[in-house]
Amino acid sequence: MNLSNNLHNNRSLIPNANTYICQKKYVSISSEDRDIVKYPSSSFFEIELPQDYVNVQTVKLSQWSFPANYNVFSKENYNLIFLFRMTDVYNPSKNNVTDPLLVAIYQALSINNYANDFLLQIEPGFYNPTQMATELTNKMNESVTNYLVKFFTENSEYNYALTLFNEYTDFVVVYNSVQQKLFFGNRNSGFEFPNDSEFYQAATVAARTLCSYGNGKEIYSFANWGLPSYIGFTRCSENSTTAINVNQYRFYYGNVLKPGDNGIWITPSPYPGAKVHFIEAVYKINFMGPAYIYLELDGLNCIDETTPYSLTKFTIETNQTNGVVNSAFAKIAVPTTPISQWFDDDHIPYKWFDPPADRIRRLRFRIRYHNGILVNFASFDWSIMLEFTLLTNQIERTSNIKMFCGK
Predict the structure, then answer these.
(1) Residues 178 and 198 in one domain
(2) N or C: which end of the chain has fewer CB within 10 A?
(3) Are 123 and 166 contained in the same domain?
(4) pLDDT tens-digit map of 70-117
(5) C-alpha distances out from residue 342 to 33, 122, 335, 348, 385, Å
(6) Strand, coil or helix: what is 143?
(7) What is the DSSP letter of 7?
């Protein structure tokens, strides 16, 4: 036998048939599997997969489970602060009232009239409409109470008022469940909501700063620019209306605050000449929060995304889009409100590799809202399952089967 002929044979011993088997491999990933010391937030971290996944044709989100524990109102969303100011303060002297406390309150609020805005901060969390109305009622009255106590304390000629004053209780906020609007009222004084204040503008500009983790930026938005935008107001200033009769603000569908009030949710103070002042929100409330969250996976993002319009030199001077190509791997609907857990497995987009990716071993996750803010899952964990489509090269095999029939 001539061995040299075999050694110099150019033919492959095992010919490549260019035939592949399409194999699906599933990987379960939980946020609790991350290095919590290095990545304290479950909305941004890296993780190493159990093995190398080679010749990857596609990657798809197969199943997921996320906690619904988000805060619609939070510091990160810049929607905890609300501004208001007193305008037409009840004047006891004009109505022949000599009560020393009422005189002191009038003088204190008149000095502050249009000079300084009252600022209140609601508690972060998730509210239903009635809870928000109660929160605003208490916070508005508390803001005026704190101002009056400070004024009476710092001005010695008004120290007498401290012994007479308990708290300010003339603001009332209620929810009209038929119109789905908030109504704001005061028992004797006018007020204004300076929704066009530079304070709100400064807050939205500050939204462009870096997030605390994830190297992400919040996108400037004209839609959710502060607490007033969530409770039914525009960027225009709103002034209270002086009620001539109760029918201007009465709710005719039934009781509001207590049994038997017949929709009359506020009455004038028992002072001569006192009249109700009220503001009706322009729009319905919007407490639901974001409808979607976005899952980013470095190297696997396959969804193009538009971004909120921003008034910049680029948008003014060009007609090009300010969207982002391959900005996210998955867009996941939030179908429920806190506190609950939601599960789903219906996801169409997937990442396609052509030619197939040689190897995937590490993944970096970033879960955010459309405006760029990272989702705050707090101490709750989430879990997903990824579907890898792998192409496995096959060896050509030829089989000859001879049939022998014996007698």
Answers:
(1) yes
(2) C
(3) yes
(4) 888 988 888 899 999 999 999 999 999 999 999 999 999 988 665 578
(5) 20, 28, 7, 18, 14
(6) helix
(7) H
Domain that holds residue 239: 81-280
In tens, the pLDDT along 118-160 reads: 999 999 999 999 999 999 999 999 999 999 999 999 999 998 9
Residue 144 to residues 52, 153, 190: CA-CA distances in angstroms?
A: 63, 14, 13
Final residue in a domain of this structure, among 239, 259, 280: 280
Residue identified by tokens 């003014």 is: 316
Specify whether the CB–CB gap between 239 and 94 falls below 8 A: no
CA separation for the pair 100, 159 (Å, rounded): 12
Tokens of 287: 């407490």
Same domain, 59 and 88: no
285 part of a folded domain: no
Report the number of distinct structural domains present in the chain.
2
Q: Are strands 191-193 and 292-297 parallel, antiparallel or unpaired?
A: unpaired
Confidence (pTM): 0.82
Q: Identify the pLDDT of residue 71.
A: 87
- Alpha-carbon span 257 to 187, nearest angstrom: 15
Token pair for 372: 């760029």
* Amino acid 342: pLDDT: 75
Query: 292-297 and 277-280 as β-strands: parallel, antiparallel, unpaired?
Result: unpaired
